[in-house]
């Protein structure tokens, strides 16, 4: 089994374990359960840095029984989680005038967050597995320069922006750049075309068509 298959198998194992624990919690703590809302069928991209990292993640909201207080719900959730080997911490948070009891639990890299309050019958669940790389980094396959000093067309000069490479120097020919937080954004220089915006991928510029500004990159150039 190759490393990619091993990583996917491990991620799937963590996803199944997380789903099993969530089903136990949701069916025990809430009423009118709709387990189809648990969107844990396929992993999602968690980190877009190379190599891409994936995780299973989901949110679910149900209602506690009218006869059960938030404190009782939190206590029951903590009991179920600790009995299953999870490390559990409890805290209090205020959000828009609602006072929440918050449980955060971790096991094997998986995380579950549960929020309950006497100000609302809602019980909110958020859960995710750790983010794993499912394949090794994929190096960008950059082609040879389209123009060099030896292959430049007579009457032309090497593009001052890409130096004859032809591909966009802003994104390295990817068409995207890494933004924040860990998100890919389209390259503003080439607008995802992947080629140099100045020479449009040609790697060279006609000397007679250079603007006064562009001539500044070629001191001593004789255009005649």
CATH fold annotation of the largest domain: Protein Transport Mog1p, Chain A
Count of runs of 4 or more consecutive helical residues: 3
**How much is the radius of gyration in Å?**
28 Å
Largest sheet, described in full? 5 strands, antiparallel
What is the number of strand segments?
12
Give the CA-based shape: elongated
Q: List segments where confidence is low: pLDDT < 50 over at least 5 consecutive residues.
A: none
Oligomer: single chain
Mean pLDDT: 91
The ordered string of helix (H) and strand (E) elements is HEEEHEEEEEEEEEH
Strand content: 25-35%
Q: Pairing-aware structural class of the strands and helices?
A: alpha+beta
In which order are the strands of the major sheet placed?
3-7-6-5-4
CATH architecture heading of the largest domain: 3-Layer(aba) Sandwich
Number of spatially distinct domains: 2
Residues in helix, %: 10-25%
* Separation, N- and C-terminal Cα atoms: 65 Å
CATH class of the largest domain: Alpha Beta
What does this structure look like?
With 224 residues, the protein is of the alpha+beta class. The protein has 2 domains: 3-133, Protein Transport Mog1p, Chain A; 140-224, no CATH class. Helices cover 20% and strands 29% of the residues. The chain is built from 3 helices and 12 strands. The protein has helices at 3-29, 70-83, 212-215; strands at residues 44-47, 53-55, 57-63, 87-95, 98-107, 110-117, 120-128, 132-133, 156-158, 176-178, 184-186, 204-206. It has a 5-stranded antiparallel beta sheet, covered by helices on one side. The chain has a 3-stranded antiparallel beta sheet with strand order 1-2-8, with helices on one face. A two-stranded antiparallel sheet has the order 9-12. α1 packs antiparallel against α2. 25% of the residues are buried. The model has no long low-confidence stretch (mean pLDDT 91).
């Amino acid at each position: 089994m190759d490393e990619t298959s091993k990583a996917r198998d491990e991620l799937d194992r963590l996803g199944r374990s997380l789903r099993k624990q969530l089903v136990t919690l949701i069916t025990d703590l809430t009423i009118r359960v709709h387990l189809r809302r648990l969107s844990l069928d396929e992993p999602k991209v968690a980190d877009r840095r190379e190599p891409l990292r994936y995780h299973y993640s989901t949110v679910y909201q149900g209602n506690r029984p009218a006869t059960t207080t938030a404190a009782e719900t939190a206590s029951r959730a903590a009991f179920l989680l600790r009995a299953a080997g999870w490390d559990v911490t409890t805290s209090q948070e205020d959000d828009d005038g609602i006072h929440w009891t918050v449980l955060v639990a971790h096991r094997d890299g998986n995380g579950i967050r549960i929020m309950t309050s006497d100000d609302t019958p809602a019980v909110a669940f958020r859960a995710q597995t750790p983010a794993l790389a499912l394949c090794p980094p994929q190096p960008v396959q950059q082609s040879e320069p389209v123009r060099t000093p030896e292959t430049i067309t007579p009457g032309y000069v090497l593009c001052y922006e890409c130096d004859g490479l032809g591909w966009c120097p802003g994104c390295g020919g990817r068409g995207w750049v890494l933004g924040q937080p860990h998100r890919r954004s389209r390259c503003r220089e080439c607008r995802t075309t992947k080629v140099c915006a100045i020479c449009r991928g040609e790697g060279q510029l006609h000397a007679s068509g250079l603007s006064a500004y562009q001539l500044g990159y070629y001191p001593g150039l004789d255009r005649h």
